[in-house]
Amino acid sequence: MSKRSVIKGTGNGSVEFQPNEKFGVVVAVLRDTRYDAVKIIEKATGDTDAFLNDRYLIKDIYKGKAVCNFADGDKFNLKYGKDLAVSRLLAKISKAREKAIHTYIEDKAGKLNVLFDKLTDMKSKAPKSDVVAASKVSTVKRSIVGTSGSSIGGNMVKKMFEAYERDFG
Q: Which of 37, 41, 104, 142 has the smallest number of Cβ neighbours within 10 A?
C-alpha cells in the first residue's frame, strides 16, 4: 500500500492505494472524511452549529476503484490506475458533500420561511398603529444594516428587510 496527497481539506489529506496487478485493480481509499461538508459549511457561513446535526455529516471512508480490462488487451498501468481510482473517489466524495450542503441550505431556507410566515401573521394581527410603524422599517433597516449593508449579518439581513418592505411596505 502506498500513499499520496490529494487535496488539502479532504479527509486526512492522503489517499491510500491498494493495487493488485494480478487482477488489474487499483483501489484508492480516503479516510476521515465525515466532517468535510460541515467544515465547508462553517467556512462559508460561520455556522458552527452545523457540527451538531448528523444530517450534514458524510461517510467516514470513501473508495474509488479502477479495473484493467484484460479481455480487450489492456495492460496494467499502475500510474493510470491510481489516477482513475482517485478521480472516481473524488467524484463520490464531491457528490456526498454536495448532498449534505444542499440539505443544510434547505434546512436554513425552511427556517427563513417560518420566520417570514410569523412576520406575515404578526402584521395581519397588528393594530393599525403598529402597521403604520412597520411601514417605516427603512429607518430600522439603516440602523441595523448600516449604509453599506455589511454589519450584523450583512446581505442576509438586508435581503430580509427588502423582502419585508416589498411584502408589507
A: 142
pLDDT digits (tens, 9 = 90+) for 115-130: 777 777 776 776 655 5
pTM of the complete model: 0.63
CB 61 within 8 A of CB 31: yes
Q: Quick one: cell of 29?
A: 481509499
pLDDT tens across 50-69, in order? 888 899 999 999 999 999 98
Distance CA 82, CA 87 (A): 8
Strand partners of residue 64: 28
- Report the number of distinct structural domains present in the chain: 2
Parent domain of 141 = 126-169
